[in-house]
Amino acid sequence: MSMEEFRAGPRPGRAAPGALLLCRADPASVAPAAHLLRDRMLLAGAGGEWSVLVPQGKPWQHGGEPVDGVVTGWATALALGAPWPVLALWWDADRAGCTLASGFRRPVGYIWLVGGTPVGEEEAMRALAARLGLDPVLDMQYVDALTRPDSAADARARLRALLAVLARVGVALPAGLTPGEPADRLREVARGLPDARQIAWPDWRETLRAELGTVGNRVMSSPLGPWLPGSASPKARVLAVAQITAGLPLTAWGLRRRSGGWVVAGLLLLGHGALGLLYDVGRPRD
Question: What predicted TM-score, i.e. pTM, was given to this entire model?
Answer without folding.
Answer: 0.69
